[in-house]
């Protein structure tokens, strides 16, 4: 990032430095506020006079032999003090003529071709002619020297410095900095050092900026369709650009430093089949084509954009690019064909070129391009827009007077000085502007009030409504009434209607009693009814317009509009369509609830605008606004205000429903508590006594109720069933399946205790029939024989229990009772087999669910089986009840403040 910032700042400093030097010497310096009445050009190795103004002061009346001629080759130049020298290149020419002013003559040595050969002449040249630009020349020069480079420079720095990490933003910054350096600037008369840097910068920017523009629009905002279909365009464009740059840079430095070197380089390129004489024309054609391809990619990006926000951004950027860059392509094309640019094209094209950087920066600020969002204070926006409009108004009046009244004054009074006429026109413009402002300020407000067009304070309306939303959120009936009052007072619609979804709304009742007016449509992906809850018309009959012979229509069905409003809320304009039958309403039969069609809805409420009420990805309803009493259309500012108000109303309506849902949540919470108490009763409270086994267990749900359970079943004298199961999932659904599995186990275990394989198959069959594929269970079930200290067990996909045996003074030996069948409830034809292990006095059996070993702390580290073995080993002598408590405490200490993610079950059974 630091490197990119450094690159941008270095380029900007170089651009500003060279531009400032050029502007200073062209507009401020005494040396260059004059011009020579001749023009020069160079061919292969020589500088010659390309044009001459023989009627210029100092030339007129002098003998022809003392005057330079078109085609004379310039050998040397000396000022009045004798400073100067041989002109070896364009840098020498610029340095030698820079001190020439309007006060002293100077000397030029030329070679002139004659019939007898070449004569070398020393000509005494008159002083420079004072510079006298007309208005058009001044505006054109200022446009190319300050206006366009300044806009491009500001745009490039603004984008690049705000998001230097973004590759696309950095590329856009390079594009604008390149444009800033590309606009015409003469470098030969700059001081030593600056002229070399300026020549390098100007040449590089001029050649590579069209390619950078192509690269940007091929990448932004994603890879362009044009690039995907024609991937060869970019490498070819880069190769051609690089070749042209290398040739152009070498020729430019050669002609600037030494015409002799230029002639040698010219010969080399000619042998390489590079036509140097047509090189500039070829490159300008290439640059024009490159820009046109880039514009095509920008337009395709806008057309192919899928997201509404992206589509808006790309339409704005592509429109600005087309408007601003087409004149550059045209100017390139004219330059390639050596066609003189028409004056009207310059006057139109120069301001249009500035549209590209301005529109791009506006898209960045307004539409968050590159993720940049700047909030301008509304007062500052107003000052910029209002004062900008006044300046524009003044320019329009001045241009009209200058180009319209100016010629008339010139015809009536030919002796009038154009400067005096221009100053007079400026004064008249200012007087007219001041008079128009005073008249508008006094008259327009009264007219606005009379025709319902007075201005409203958006900030005040939003502030009042925000307070009303906070105060009336629990009373939507009063809130909707307040909203409609504010909308009616600000916009003066002939009526306002609010439709809400056909759902219970606190303190709200549909209009028309048991048969409310409704509209039905597919909003947000499901069929919903929207019922009329509020309808307001102006109280006075004078303000109610007669609605006859007018229907209402939109460009798309209301259902599709509301479905799209979930993703991209926006208003829907409704247009009037003339029909022959008068509007008579829509009567329905007795007891019928009128469910209006689209056309009926729009006609019944004289609709001109629909505004969705959207929050949380749901459409809660919509507002229907009739035509304004002023009969003017709803403006973009009106729609933005209504969308903001609708967003607040939707949030308040949603909140009012949440308030009602709180009671339901409290009821549900109590039901969960009851379910938790019921589930707690399902766990064993009395332990069947055995002579050789002491045992105990514990289960703690993650969400009040859960899917783990353990059980101790008496299967006859001296026989105990030990069960631990884990249901997939958590909460109430898992708890219900857990209760079902426990009931199945208790009912089938006594009859299947002799063959646990049959028990597993029977449990699996019942679960497959009673649950879906997303619900299954793991189960460990063992049958302990008190007399033989043997354990027959079935492990259906459960974690292997741990059997710890004493090993003298060392750590206990650990055996795992692995599973011999998959989980219950997935495969109907699954088979299971029982296994058996003989226990010895002192052995400890630990059966647990994955909530123990998968317990995770804040560092996302698992408790794991090794820690469980370590805990049990360290508390080997604790009784079964104490051991279960110790295990839970160790797990809690390990996870710390991390919430419990899964149900925890643990059983300890010790053989004596």
How many β strands by DSSP? Answer: 27
The CATH homologous superfamily of the largest domain corresponds to PPM-type phosphatase domain
Q: How many separate domains? A: 5
Mind telling me the CATH class of the largest domain?
A: Alpha Beta
Low-confidence stretches: 373-391, 446-456, 540-549, 578-592
* Content-based structural category: alpha+beta
SSE order and pairing:
Layout: H1 2-28, E1 34-35, E2 38-43, E3 46-52, E4 73-78, E5 84-86, H2 90-97, E6 106-114, E7 117-125, E8 129-130, H3 135-162, H4 167-182, H5 194-219, H6 225-229, H7 233-257, H8 259-271, H9 279-304, H10 308-336, H11 343-353, H12 355-367, H13 378-412, H14 418-450, H15 458-472, H16 476-491, E9 496-501, E10 518-523, E11 526-536, E12 550-553, H17 558-565, E13 572-573, E14 575-578, E15 595-596, H18 598-604, E16 607-615, E17 618-626, H19 636-682, E18 693-700, E19 708-714, E20 719-727, H20 731-752, H21 756-770, E21 777-785, E22 790-796, E23 802-805, E24 813-816, E25 835-838, E26 844-848, H22 850-853, H23 864-874, H24 880-895, E27 904-911
Parallel strand pairs: 10-15
Antiparallel strand pairs: 1-8, 2-3, 4-5, 4-6, 6-7, 9-11, 9-17, 10-11, 12-14, 13-16, 16-17, 18-27, 19-20, 20-21, 21-22, 22-25, 23-24, 23-26, 26-27
Helix pairs in contact: 1-3, 1-4, 1-5, 3-4, 3-11, 3-12, 4-5, 5-7, 5-9, 7-8, 7-9, 9-10, 10-11, 10-12, 13-14, 15-16, 15-19, 16-19, 19-20, 20-21
């Amino acid at each position: 990032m630091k490197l990119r910032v450094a690159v941008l700042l270095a380029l900007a400093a170089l651009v500003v430095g060279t531009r400032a030097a050029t502007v200073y010497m062209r507009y401020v310096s005494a040396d260059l506020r004059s011009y020579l009445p001749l023009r020069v050009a160079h061919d292969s190795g020589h500088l010659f006079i390309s044009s001459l103004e023989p009627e210029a002061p100092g030339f007129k009346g002098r003998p022809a032999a003392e005057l330079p001629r078109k085609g004379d080759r310039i050998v040397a130049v000396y000022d009045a003090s004798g400073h100067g020298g041989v002109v070896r290149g364009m840098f020498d020419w610029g340095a030698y003529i820079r001190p020439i002013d309007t006060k002293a003559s100077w000397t030029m040595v030329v070679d002139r071709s004659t019939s007898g050969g070449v004569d070398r002449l020393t000509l005494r040249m008159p002083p420079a002619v004072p510079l006298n630009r007309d208005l058009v020349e001044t505006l054109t020069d200022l446009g190319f020297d300050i206006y366009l480079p300044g806009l491009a420079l500001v745009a490039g720095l603004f984008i690049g410095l705000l998001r230097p990490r973004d590759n696309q933003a950095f590329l856009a910054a390079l594009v604008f900095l390149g444009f800033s350096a590309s606009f015409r600037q003469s470098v030969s008369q700059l001081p030593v050092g600056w002229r070399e840097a300026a020549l390098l910068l100007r040449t590089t920017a001029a050649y590579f900026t069209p390619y950078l523009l192509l690269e940007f629009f091929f990448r932004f905002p994603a890879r362009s369709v044009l690039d995907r279909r024609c991937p060869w365009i970019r490498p070819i464009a880069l190769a051609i650009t690089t070749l042209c740059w290398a040739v152009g840079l070498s020729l430019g430095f050669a002609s600037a430093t030494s015409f002799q070197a230029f002639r040698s380089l010219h010969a080399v390129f000619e042998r390489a089949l590079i036509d140097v004489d047509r090189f500039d024309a070829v490159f300008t054609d290439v640059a024009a084509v490159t820009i046109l391809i880039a514009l095509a990619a920008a337009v395709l990006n806008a057309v192919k954009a899928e997201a509404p926000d992206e589509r808006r951004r790309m339409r704005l950027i592509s429109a600005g690019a087309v408007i601003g860059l087409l004149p550059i392509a045209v100017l390139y094309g004219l330059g390639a064909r050596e066609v003189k640019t028409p004056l009207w094209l310059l006057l139109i094209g120069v301001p249009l070129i500035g549209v590209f950087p301005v529109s791009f920066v506006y898209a960045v600020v307004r539409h968050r391009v590159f993720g940049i969002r700047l909030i301008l204070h509304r007062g500052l926006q107003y000052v910029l827009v209002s004062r900008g409009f006044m300046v524009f108004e003044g320019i329009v009046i001045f241009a009209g007077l200058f180009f319209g009244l100016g010629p008339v004054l010139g015809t009536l009074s030919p002796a009038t000085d154009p400067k005096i006429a221009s100053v007079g026109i400026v004064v008249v413009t200012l007087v007219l502007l001041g008079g128009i402002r005073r008249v508008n300020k006094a008259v327009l407000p009264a007219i606005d009030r009379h025709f319902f067009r007075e201005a409203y304070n958006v900030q005040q309306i939003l502030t009042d409504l925000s307070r009303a939303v906070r105060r009336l959120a629990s009373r939507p009936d009063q809130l909707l009434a307040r909203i409609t009052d504010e909308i009616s007072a600000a916009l003066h619609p002939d009526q306002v209607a609010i439709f809400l979804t056909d759902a219970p709304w606190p303190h709200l009742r549909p209009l028309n009693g048991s048969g409310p007016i409704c509209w039905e449509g597919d909003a947000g992906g499901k069929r919903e009814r929207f019922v009329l809850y509020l309808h307001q018309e102006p109280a006075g009959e004078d303000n109610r317009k007669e609605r006859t012979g007018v229907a209402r229509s939109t460009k798309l069905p209301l259902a599709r509009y509301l479905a799209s409003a979930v993703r991209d809320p926006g208003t829907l304009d409704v247009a009037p369509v003339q029909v022959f039958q008068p509007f008579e309403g829509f009567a329905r039969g007795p007891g019928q609830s009128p469910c209006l069609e689209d056309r009926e809805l729009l006609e019944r409420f004289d609709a001109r605008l629909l505004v969705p009420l959207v929050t949380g990805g749901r459409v809660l309803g919509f507002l229907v606004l009739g035509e304004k009493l002023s009969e003017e259309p709803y403006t973009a500012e009106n729609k933005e205000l209504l969308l903001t108000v609708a967003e607040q109303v939707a949030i308040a309506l949603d909140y009012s429903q949440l308030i009602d849902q709180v009671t339901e949540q409290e009821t549900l919470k109590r039901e969960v508590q009851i379910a938790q108490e019921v589930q707690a009763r399902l766990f064993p409270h009395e332990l069947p006594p055995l002579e050789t086994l002491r045992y105990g267990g514990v289960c703690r749900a993650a969400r009040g109720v859960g899917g783990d359970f353990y059980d101790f079943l008496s299967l006859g004298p001296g026989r105990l069933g030990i069960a631990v199961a884990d249901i997939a999932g958590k909460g109430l659904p898992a708890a219900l399946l857990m209760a079902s599995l426990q009931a199945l186990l208790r009912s089938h275990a006594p009859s299947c205790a002799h063959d646990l394989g049959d028990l597993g198959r029977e449990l699996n069959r019942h679960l497959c029939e009673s649950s879906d594929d997303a619900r299954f269970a793991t189960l460990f079930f063992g049958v302990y024989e008190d007399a033989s200290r043997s354990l027959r067990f079935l492990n259906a996909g459960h974690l292997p229990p741990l059997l710890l045996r004493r090993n003298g003074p060392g750590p206990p030996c650990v055996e795992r009772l692995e599973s011999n069948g998959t989980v219950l409830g997935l495969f109907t034809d699954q088979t299971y087999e029982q296994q058996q292990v003989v226990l010895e006095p002192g052995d400890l059996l630990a059966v647990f669910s994955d909530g123990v070993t998968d317990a995770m702390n804040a560092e996302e580290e698992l408790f794991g089986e090794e820690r469980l073995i370590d805990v049990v080993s360290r508390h080997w002598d604790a009784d079964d009840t104490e051991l279960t408590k110790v295990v839970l405490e160790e797990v809690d200490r390990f996870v710390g403040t991390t919430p419990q993610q899964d149900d925890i079950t643990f059983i300890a059974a010790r053989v004596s």
